[in-house]
Amino acid sequence: MRYAQLVMGPAGSGKSTYCSNLVKHAEDSRKVINVVNIDPAAEYFDYEPLADIRELIHVDDAMEDEDMKFGPNGGLVFCMEYLLENSDWLKEQLGEDVDDDYILFDCPGQIELYTHMQTIRQLTDLLKNWNFNICAVFLVDAQFMVDGPKFLSGTMAALSVMVNLELPHVNILTKMDLLSKSARSKLDNYLDPDPQYLLTDIEACHSKWGRNHHRLSEAIGRIIEDFSLVRFIPLDLRDDENVADVLMTIDNILQYGEDADVKTKDFEYPDENDREDSFS
Ligand SMILES: Nc1nc2c(ncn2[C@@H]2O[C@H](COP(=O)(O)OP(=O)(O)O)[C@@H](O)[C@H]2O)c(=O)[nH]1
Ligand SMILES: [Mg+2]
What we know:
binds magnesium ion, binds guanosine-5'-diphosphate, Rossmann fold, alpha/beta, seven-stranded parallel β-sheet, 13 helices, globular
């Protein structure tokens, strides 16, 4: 069996940083995790990719083509379709089917690829055929989740991805190191979802939406709570234990290292003094 995390999320949510940190974390515990970049518009990442879509096609190739004249979004979709048409290339880059192979796929930041388009779904079908167990990992920048309306909208985005891809799925709040203490404690109240708390907060924002759609917001909050539909795991990359917990959660879902003991642990914010200065 091979194992894959499909690392998705909006542009700038921290996908490439997450991948490179996981690689380093694995190295420290003498494991090998590889990363495949499938973002044809990637400008920077600091891991050594096992494969890089830009060697097959770069978004600029699609945009500079005189006949096609794509913009950035059309160009990206074209590149993803091109990747699927050239799946032999990807298969070759992924190499032999080695047991316990662990690969992160660093995906592009266009959210429509995950919420309603079929290309990523087709890619996951290919990976399944190539003997991969897959976990979808959806990253959201924690800074965009610290008030009621934003939390609700981030939750709905995550839910769209879950419904569209139909894969085992984990949602992660990235960049926890950037939140103030008060923002963190506010976020804590949402993480154990209480629709009433969320609703009070939405109303407190005095938005027209909050006033006009009180019952709709309440109903959405309640459905999410009642069906345990969407959960978010906070991630502070400076905290090794937090990274290990997130990885263990995903590994359990992937059934990776089945022999290892299953250990669950509530997230605890790291002590200020235990932190290193940098998250990377
Ligand atoms: N402080 C902080 N910055 C981060 C973190 N993760 C990513 N970033 C920064 O956010 C920006 C976008 O990150 P990147 O990984 O390229 O996002 P991507 O577009 O989703 O691949 C970069 O400037 C990163 O240095 C984090 O956990 N903490
Ligand atoms: Mg990236």
